[in-house]
Amino acid sequence: MPAIEVRNLCRTYKVYRKREGLMASLKGLLHREFSEVHAVRDVSFTIDEGEMLAFLGPNGAGKTTTLKLLSGLIVPTSGTATVLGHVPWKREDAYRRRFSLVTGQKEQLWWDLPAQESFRLHKEIYRISGPDYDSRLEELTELLQVTDLMQQPVRELSLGERMRMELIAALLHRPDVLFLDEPTIGLDVVSQRRVQQFLRKYQAEQGITVILTSHYMKDVEALCDRAIVINKGNVIHDGALAEIVDRFSQHKIIELHFASGSEPNGIDRFGVVLEDRGPMIRLQIERQRVSEALSAILQQYDIEDISVSERPLEDVIAELFASDEEPAA
Ligand SMILES: Nc1ncnc2c1ncn2[C@@H]1O[C@H](COP(=O)(O)OP(=O)(O)OP(=O)(O)O)[C@@H](O)[C@H]1O
Ligand SMILES: [Mg+2]
What we know:
By secondary structure, the chain is an alpha/beta fold. The chain is built from 11 helices and 13 strands.
């Protein structure tokens, strides 16, 4: 059974245009001019229970808006969505208890109090029983290695420590669906990895359904098999993460090890030299020219070893986002 179903979801924001000059401003009071921002244009997807899906897209693509819709924080302009059978923007109490939204940019913890105090508040809000609360808190603080930090005011915690506390706050009531909006933003590599490891373990153990947005492909690769890519409010890819490289990368990377004494003169006829280190050269070659180039290279040079690989997901995504044109779906 699908946990999340989204059909033709749209959300338009009206942005009022300010007019220049006094007369214009006065006119503006009478005739407000506005333009429309189509934050989410026509988004449809289905996510099964227990899936961990990456939701990717450049800045302003509509990721946060979609997660806000699914969390019931805003109402769509048109379209439908159900999460665990609930329409999020009806804001039913029964739904509130089944999901959590974690964002890297906005905190739900009280700044001046130890995290523990905020957790107690969550216990009351979600009416978590004493024994459940104690065992979950112990489990989560251990998994996230923050047991020693529980008494410290949140403002004294590092960004990474704070994010781990945010995750605890989000998970205390055992949601079945978790929306993670850039949970590792601004974290150093070690903290990022810690959060990744926690999420992987927790998700596997609890079987919860997760939507993750992140600009760090390392997060995405570590956690998700499937990705939805959106751009300008439209879904441009929905499928295996690995397919993104297949579908959107026009190039492959070829690593050549030249036999000693063999000179790589003129190798740049075949592609762009990415790296030139002694007997090893890395070339970027157009996908459809790879086999032709390989046989020519093997004929003309003395090659000891050769390997062909895909471009890293990170590069492909960066290029995909940089190109203004929407690739054919
Ligand atoms: N409250 C709002 N009022 C007007 N426009 C908004 C509002 N919220 C978002 N938008 C616009 O909607 C579009 C989508 O924004 P959204 O925050 O969903 O993008 P995003 O994919 O989360 O981007 P990022 O990667 O930068 O977080 C943007 O053009 C943004 O400026
Ligand atoms: Mg966002």
